Amino acid sequence: MTFQKQVIDNTVEKLLKGEDYREEVVNAINAEFFDFAIAFFKEIVKAKLDSTEINLEWYKTYFINNSEFDPAESAIFAGMNKKTITNINGTASKEVVLDVANSNFDYLSNLIDELRQDNLDEIGISIKLSYKDVYVELNLAESLLVINALATKKAAIRGGAWSSIGKKV
User: Fold this and answer.
1) Which residues, given as ranges, of the chain have pLDDT below 70?
2) Residue 167 and residue 26: Cα distance in Å, rounded?
3) Cα–Cα dist 90/107, whole Å
4) Do residues 104 and 79 make contact, with C-beta atoms less than 8 angstroms apart?
5) CA distance linking residue 165 with residue 5, whole number of Å
6) Which sequence spans correspond to the domains of the chain?
7) Looking at beta carbons, which pairs linking 116-123 to residues 24 or more positions away fall under 8 Å?
């Protein structure tokens, strides 16, 4: 059972009993975020199971330019959300969303490169993921992109962008 399914069941139960369900809305936001995060991390580790090198080019190919993902999700992985893209461009066509997602990813990659050049010895971030006894450690650039995607997803959920409920990450 996903976190989301559990929250939906709890909400329905409270509605049927005439109880306040607003706490469940907060729980739903957290549940959708956790479902997303866990599935996102699993995808990264599965790639490592397939002996795929985890790097920025792989991330861009697998998460942003992968036709298996809805363009709105690809935008999230690139640190953008569909609503912002629509507000800026006046459209959320698949082509525009993917173009903006790729542009933003390239921009973030350049910022990360500058950060590495400026602070190479001063800061280090790594995220260590494990799944089925396989461990993956993300470097500074990869960790920052993952953190940015997670922050974007949380903001999108809180902003009412619930379009990904039940979809594959």
Assistant:
1) 1-3, 51, 119-121, 160-169
2) 20
3) 21
4) yes
5) 10
6) 3-158
7) 116/140, 116/141
Which helix (H) or strand (E) element contains residue 137?
Answer: strand 134-138
Provide the phi-psi class of 135: left if phi over 0, else alpha when psi is between -120 and 50, else beta: beta
pLDDT reported for residue 108: 92
Note the Cα 163 to chain centre separation in Å: 13
Which pLDDT tens digit goes with each residue over 136-165?
A: 888 888 888 899 999 999 998 887 644 443
The answer to whether residues 137 and 126 touch, using CB atoms and an 8 Å cutoff, is yes
For residue 123, is it left (φ>0), alpha (ψ between -120 and 50) or beta?
Answer: beta
Closest CA to 78 of 127, 144, 5, 160: 144
Whole-prediction pTM: 0.75
Take residue 63 and report the two structure tokens written for it: 């998460």
Q: What is the residue type of 118?
A: D
